TrEMBL record:
GO terms for molecular function: oxidoreductase activity. Pfam families: Amino_oxidase (PF01593). It comes from Rhodoglobus vestalii. InterPro entries: Amino_oxidase, FAD/NAD-bd_sf, Zeta_carotene_desat/Oxidored. SUPFAM superfamilies: FAD-linked reductases, C-terminal domain (SSF54373), FAD/NAD(P)-binding domain (SSF51905). PANTHER family: PROTOPORPHYRINOGEN OXIDASE. This is Oxygen-dependent protoporphyrinogen oxidase. The lineage of its organism: Bacteria, Bacillati, Actinomycetota, Actinomycetes, Micrococcales. Residues 21-246 form the Amine oxidase domain.
Length: 439
């Protein structure tokens, strides 16, 4: 049976289905503008993939744990919610790479998606070997005719910088970020790369120019105490502005939307089309291991797709990445591993993988606590699945990651609040899927 929170006067003008970040942002904006809003959520809590969980007595983000700084949208939202002083940058410890064979190596820090900007730099040579680095440097001599942009990132890098650059650098990063091999990542999903390639004629120069165009400071930020604090504050605002929240009510189909009051906004995947997507399993370990105090792999390790030494595709050393978490953990270490395919006996496999990737011994009694969490990353709706007239926000239409989704949800709310004539003629923005984050 569903439970309802909040009261409001008058007929419902808007019903938002789904209480993840997208639904919360839209519901809050509409309610702040004085409109009567009802939010329907299938589970017994708000936030969706922005969630938290106690592991080893520490309250940890159990889904998203950072946000992209581009566009400043999430930071702006955090400031509006009174969390401006709580925005933090990750430590400047870089990430590492676990190659197919051999020990982990530092990831060259000046690339984009692993594509080196300086193929003959010491850290790039360390990963590619001298022959591989010299082959990558040939990129500067190969003309760019720009005839084919409908190719994969893998194919482009292979042509211009050689196989080693793809397999040893780009594949581990793209695999860690998108769960894809670069051969399966269309070039046009890497925003701005082909344009800059056309402009500069070399891939390394294009990467350098992309990096120069990035805002100063870190590409991602977090919130002291966890990204999940956004949800706590959004939920508090819904209460303040009188939004009725119905928990444990699942809207089963597109047809069922017709029974809802007012203008309906779909902020949940799986309603307009069957839920498709990829599963991600997270294993979180809280560890007692003084050897990890030295943070041997910086903020974490990205794993080459064909590496058989471990099953994880990436590891984050969360207490090395976030100073606030290090303080909270009081000497213990938090490590998070992600898996595309969940292995049997995840707890043991995660302990073993952490040991290999971090390069320290982690006997079973080093594990203070373990938690498993599985998420689905929903695929984008196809044009055919986007029913005319139904307003949709969230990951299935708004792109990947909080920065894209919040930008899209803000724009959707503004359109809904625009005077009737304007609202009829305008269309909601659709950000390209894949513009953003990992997970
Ligand atoms: C493991 C992981 C790590 C991530 N890390 C990052 C990161 O570090 N940075 C970043 O920017 N992004 C990250 N992301 C992505 C980001 O968390 C999501 O893109 C974003 O939170 C999606 O928000 P949403 O509102 O679209 O959907 P969701 O969060 O999926 O919310 C949808 C809501 O709708 C509800 N619902 C579903 N079906 C129904 C129904 N039929 N009826 C009613 N309610 C329904 C759900 O219960 C849920 O509350 C990560 C994602 C995962 C899984």
């Amino acid at each position: 049976m569903s439970t309802t929170e909040g009261t409001t006067e008058g007929a419902t003008e808007f019903t938002v289905v789904g209480g993840g970040i997208a639904g919360l942002v839209v519901a809050r904006k509409l309610a702040m503008a004085g409109r009567t809003v009802r939010l329907i959520e299938a589970s017994d809590h708000l936030g969706g993939t922005v969630a938290s969980r106690l592991v080893g007595g520490i309250n940890l983000d159990s889904g998203a744990e950072s946000f992209a700084t581009r566009g400043n949208t999430v930071a702006e939202l955090a400031r509006e919610l009174g969390l401006g002083d709580e925005i933090v940058s990750p430590s400047d410890e870089g990430a590492w790479l676990q190659p197919v064979t051999g020990a982990a190596l530092p990831l060259p820090s000046t690339g984009v998606l692993g594509i080196p900007s300086t193929p003959l730099s010491v850290d790039t040579i360390a990963v590619l070997g001298l022959a591989g680095a010299l082959r990558a440097q040939l990129d500067s001599l190969i003309p760019w005719f720009g005839r084919r942009t409908d190719i994969s990132l893998g194919k482009l890098v292979r042509r211009r910088m050689g196989k080693a650059a793809v397999e040893k650098l780009v594949a581990p990063v793209v695999h860690g970020v998108y769960s894809l091999h670069p051969n399966d990542l269309p070039l046009d999903r890497v925003a701005g790369l082909t344009e800059r390639l056309a402009l500069h004629g070399s891939l390394a120069m294009a990467v350098r120019s992309l990096r120069d165009a990035m805002p100063a400071g870190t590409a991602v930020q977090g919130i002291r105490g966890g990204i999940n604090r956004l949800v706590t504050e959004l939920a508090a605002d819904l209460k303040t502005y009188g939004v009725i929240v119905e928990f444990e009510r699942r809207i089963e189909s597109a047809e069922a939307l017709a029974d809802l009051d007012g203008t309906v906004i779909v902020a949940a995947p799986g309603i307009l089309a069957p839920l498709r997507g990829r599963a991600v399993t997270l294993a979180t370990l809280v560890l007692n291991s003084p050897e990890l105090d030295a943070e041997p792999r910086g903020s974490g390790v990205l794993v080459a797709p064909d590496c058989t030494a471990v099953s994880a595709r990436a590891l984050t050393h969360s207490t090395a990445k976030w100073q606030w978490l290090k303080e909270l953990a009081e000497g213990r270490h938090v490590v998070r591993l992600s898996y595309n395919t969940e292995p049997e006996n995840l707890a043991e496999v995660a302990r073993h993988d952490a040991e290999v990737l971090l390069g320290v011994e982690l006997p079973p009694d080093a594990v203070v606590d373990f938690a498993r969490q599985q998420w689905i990353r929903p695929a984008a709706l196809t044009a055919a699945e986007r029913t005319d007239g139904v307003i949709v926000v969230g990951e299935t239409v708004g792109g990947t990651g909080l920065a894209s989704i919040v930008t899209h949800a803000n724009a959707a709310a503004e359109r809904l609040l625009a005077p009737a004539e304007e609202a009829k003629t305008g269309s909601l923005p659709v950000c390209p899927q894949g513009a953003g984050e990992n997970g």
